[in-house]
Automatic annotation (TrEMBL), chain A:
Protein name: Osmoprotectant transport system permease protein
Family matches, as SUPFAM superfamilies: MetI-like
Gene Ontology terms describing biological process: glycine betaine transport; transmembrane transport
Domain ABC transmembrane type-1: 18-204
InterPro entries on file: ABC_transp_perm/SBD, MetI-like, MetI-like_sf
Tree of life domain: Bacteria
Taxonomic path: Bacteria, Pseudomonadati, Pseudomonadota, Gammaproteobacteria, Oceanospirillales
From TrEMBL, chain B:
Species this chain originates from: Halomonas fontilapidosi
Keywords associated with the record: ATP-binding, CBS domain, Cell inner membrane, Cell membrane, Membrane, Nucleotide-binding, Repeat, Transport
The keyword Membrane is assigned to this record: yes
GO molecular function: ABC-type quaternary ammonium compound transporting activity; ATP binding; ATP hydrolysis activity
Domain of life: Bacteria
Enzyme Commission number, as recorded: 7.6.2.9
SMART domains according to UniProt: AAA
Protein's name according to its UniProt entry: Quaternary amine transport ATP-binding protein
Recorded catalytic activity of this chain's protein: a quaternary ammonium(out) + ATP + H2O = a quaternary ammonium(in) + ADP + phosphate + H(+)
Membrane-protein topology: Peripheral membrane protein
Pfam (any one): CBS
Residue ranges annotated for the ABC transporter domain, each copy included: 2-240
Localization per record: Cell inner membrane
Amino acid sequence: MELIQYALDNIDLLATRTVEHIALVGVAVGIATLTGVPIGIAITKNERMAQAVLYAASIIVTIPSIALFGIMIPVLSLIGQGIGYLPAVIAVLLYSQLPIIRNTYTAINNVDPALREAARGIGMSPNQRLRLVEIPLAVPVIMAGVRTAVVLNIGVMAIAAYIGAGGLGTFISRGISQSDPRQLIVGAVAVSLLAIIVDYTLLYVQKRLTPRGMELDTSTA
Amino acid sequence: MIQLDNLTKVFDTPKGAVVAADHISMDVPSGEICILLGPSGCGKTTTLKMINRIVKPTSGKVFINGEDTTGMNTQDLRRNIGYVIQQIGLFPNMTIEENITVVPKLLGWNKARYKERARELMAMISMEPDAFLKRFPSELSGGQQQRIGVARALAADPPVMLMDEPFGAIDPINRAVIQDEFLKMQQELKKTIMFVSHDIDEAIKMGDRVAIFREGKLVQHSAPDDLLAAPKNAFVESFLGEDRALKRLNLVKVKDVVSDEIATVKPGDTLETALARIDDYGYQNAILMVNDQRQPVGLITRAKARTTKGYCRDHFENVPATVTLEDDLRKVASLMFSQDATWLPCVDDDGRVCGQITQRAMTHHLGSRFRAREAAARNPDSTVEE
């Protein structure tokens, strides 16, 4: 009861932090999608390049977020952005690369070879094949990668509160430093709820983006 | 017209160079279907795919309607060649209409024109445009999908079509239906078609000419009838099968074998007359009874005519079956076997008796080609009629 009372008393702040959180993750994953999808498509042309890129992206994900923020402080301080918004966005951008690149790469590579041959055989150029056939067919799997990135990074972004990026993590960090379990729990629950709600929202978007002809024979959830 | 000039493909594999197609030279005259036939790995598919450069030729040239395609832009070349593959390859993200208008759109047709073309194509493949154009490939049966696959290949009305085992994945009943429909369409469209198959029966049914491949080489390129009658070597002979004489039954029509000499009786004749006529003509079992329009109405058997007195109209049996001039001998043979008959009356379009077909005449006709070949083999000075 006490917790709910606390949440209601601070509803304005909670809303502001939530919007901040969404904006941070949204901008970062948005940029990550714009870079990751073209990279994922590009590496389908070269197997060795693909292995190298995917390996590098995997290594980035293994770096603990706190460490990543730590590394960026001295580097970004050179342009006066050592803490706050920019390092948080960059971290999320980096973490998002693996799921987005990997899913794009897999989806394009898994397009039925018969469809690819049909597309070549009727005279589509490589770009037309991508635009008319391969990307539309890959969209559900690419979107699944974006969803993974978003959910993963809603968690990562909570930690970015420690470098002053704002967001729902502020409740958690203050809860810890002030030994206030109310703030801690409200922050943690809010982050989890946000992740769940955003995941379902994106699932809906993914279904809307799936070509209708493909919904009919496959259950791409 | 498609001309292949020393077309060769060498694949580099870890085990060394493999010659998939070895100096293939052949012509497909305009408006004909040429079937590339052979066991797997014989180079037939490689040869086909070199024409639209899905497989890049190592050397050799392809001419289409006399024009060397070597210098052509690959995409332009492919847009002017219809291509049908066994896996069908309809784009699942597009509606049927979008699928069959892909090539016209690539060629820059305006919307009104390609929309109209879509409806024309649906009519051509006997599918209702309003019922199907807005649907997706996954909603269609395999046979319907392959009809759409053929329509897509025909969309821009290319003079040449390449078909890679197009009906191979369709169940046998639907396959026969689609083959018949396709042949009917081809009679009007007169496309120049190269068609890969591994099914000898399909080759004989569909092909104006059949090219047999083995280990990357073109072994024999003949009309189906010549192929069956005169296989060039032991490989071709074994590939065609031991029943190759029977396969020719499909190729010969009743009108090629029919004898217009047939004795009949009328319902008003006596059995005595019938018996006399059976003996005069040397018939074994029975004589046909026809009405005033010369339509077959019954059979008077020899046994009945000999033991009974009276008129034919009171003592006839049913006619087991009749055949028409356009039926093939396979159907005739099947009817004869199922009816235990050695001859069948043949009727014209109005159902009037115009002759008869006998087992003897059929075996004689089919055997003549083989005998001619054997005679030539015994007497090397004379040449086989090809």
